[in-house]
Structures are given as C-alpha cells and as structure tokens.
Specification:
Largest sheet: 7 strands, parallel
Mean pLDDT: 95
Number of domains: 1
Strand order of the largest sheet: 3-2-1-4-5-6-7
Shape: globular
CATH architecture: 3-Layer(aba) Sandwich
CATH class: Alpha Beta
CATH topology: Rossmann fold
Order of helices and strands: EHEHEHEHEHEHHHE
Low-confidence stretches: none
Number of helices: 8
Oligomer: single chain
Radius of gyration: 17 Å
Length: 257
C-alpha cells in the first residue's frame, strides 16, 4: 500500500518511456506525485503517461532530446507553467551505445554521441532543474549513473567516461547547493533487466553466455529489476534520506561487496 510520500509533489523523470525511468515515473505516481514524463520516443512517453493516469495519478508528457539545451529548458518551463513548481527530478535518460571496441579503436562519432547525451545532457537537465529549485527554495535531484561510473567497462569507453562524469557532476553540485535545501545524489546500478541491457549493445536477451556472466557479477546471482532501482530513487527524493547528498550509491545486488 502506498505511503503517499509524494502527495502534492511535482516529479520530473527523463527517459520515462522505458526501463528504470518508466518504473520510477510509475512508482512516484503510486505515491501521490504529479508526474512530468519526459521522453525522446513519443509513443513510449505517451504510454507511460497513460499508465500514470490509469493509476489515478496526474501528469503530462513532454517530448525531449536531452542533448539539446533548448529542449531541456522547454521541458522544465512547461512543467512549471503547468504545475507551478518542480520538487523532484530523476535524470534517467541515457544511451549505452551499439559499438564494442577497445579505447584506441573506438569510433569518434559514437564517443561524441554518448558524451552529448549521457554527460552533457544530464548537465543541461541539472542546470534547468537547479535554476527552478533555487527560485522555489529547494528540491531533490537523482541522477541515474551506472556501475560503469565507479569502475571501468571494457570495450565501451565513452559509457564509462560519461557515467564517471555524471558521478562528478553529482558530487560537485551536491556541495555547491548543500546549504540551499537542494539534495543531489546518483544511483549506480549494475545489471538491471531493462530494454537497454537486454536488447542493446550486449543483447543479453539473445546471448545466454553474456547474460549468465551479468547474473554472476552480482552476489545475489540474479539481475535487478527496474522497480528495485526506482524504489531507491524515491527514497533519495523523500524526506527519509534528508541528511544524504553527494552520494554515488550502488544498486548492485552485492556486486561491490
């Protein structure tokens, strides 16, 4: 049963059309939040919004490519114009790439694309969100980084570099706004059963050997579920974590133990 921790709160989730972002948007809705569903794929975003509404929640869908600053600023301005404020933001939008190559052979175009979305795009989101939260007197931000933001990921150097960058963004901003009633944390999931992991670069859905390797990386010997990451994101956005900021928190089934 919902505890309604987010009654009267306006919560924005990027990448809300699938995976961790979708699970987070729905989890916020179950706990009473008004949801801003931000997503590049319009069909996926509208589907998530329909699910939010089916839960009895309120919300709107805003199409956005976070690699473009003007679209990110529009996303936040529409949210505030519609609902009056922005209390929580979970920056889940990101890409894992399609190329597996060692660092010296990695294609420049793929490097630039991944950095523009995962790192610069997250920075654009934080800039717009922080500007609004400063105006209204506070808020919380959770950035979805990765276990690849805490250790290397062979043959996917831009992903590891971008996610290490997200951790650096998180920690720096957490210090800067710690006395402004704004808390900023990051989550670093390991193998979570999302479309990006199952259907993306490593195609775990079709590669039993790679899937078994991913499962064995966790001490729990299973993959995590998007909702398990969403639950931690909600906790970090709630008053229950009021003395926590600047963390890069693994959600890892014991992988880092």
């Amino acid at each position: 049963m919902s505890r309604n921790r987010f009654d009267s709160k306006v919560c924005l989730v990027t990448g809300a059309g699938a995976g961790i972002g979708r699970a987070t948007a729905l989890a916020f809705a179950r706990e009473g939040a008004t949801i801003v569903v931000a997503e590049l794929n319009p069909d996926a975003g509208k589907t998530t919004l329909d699910e939010v509404l089916a839960l009895g929640g309120k919300g709107l869908f805003v199409p956005v490519d976070i690699a473009h600053q003007e679209q990110v600023e529009h996303m936040v301005s529409v949210a505030v114009a519609t609902f009056g404020r922005l209390d929580c933001a979970v920056n889940s939008a990101g890409i894992a790439g399609t190329v597996s190559q060692p660092t010296h052979e990695y294609p420049e175009a793929d490097w630039l694309l991944m950095l523009s979305v995962n790192l610069t795009g997250t920075w654009y989101c934080m800039k717009a969100q922080l500007t609004q939260m400063l105006k209204q007197g506070g808020g919380t931000i959770v950035n979805i980084a990765s276990a690849a933001g805490l250790r290397g990921q062979p043959e996917n150097v831009p992903y590891a570099a971008s996610k290490h960058g997200v951790v650096g963004l998180t920690r720096t901003a957490a210090i800067e706004y710690a006395t402004k009633n704004i808390r900023i944390n990051a989550l670093c999931p390991t193998a979570i059963e999302t479309p990006m992991l199952m259907e993306g670069r490593r195609k775990l859905a079709y590669n039993p050997e790679a899937r078994e390797k991913a499962i064995n990386y966790q001490a729990m010997k299973r993959m995590g579920q998007p909702g398990e990451v969403a639950d931690v994101a909600l906790w970090l956005c709630s008053g229950e974590s009021s003395f926590m900021t600047g963390h890069a928190l693994p959600v890892d089934g014991g992988a880092f133990a």
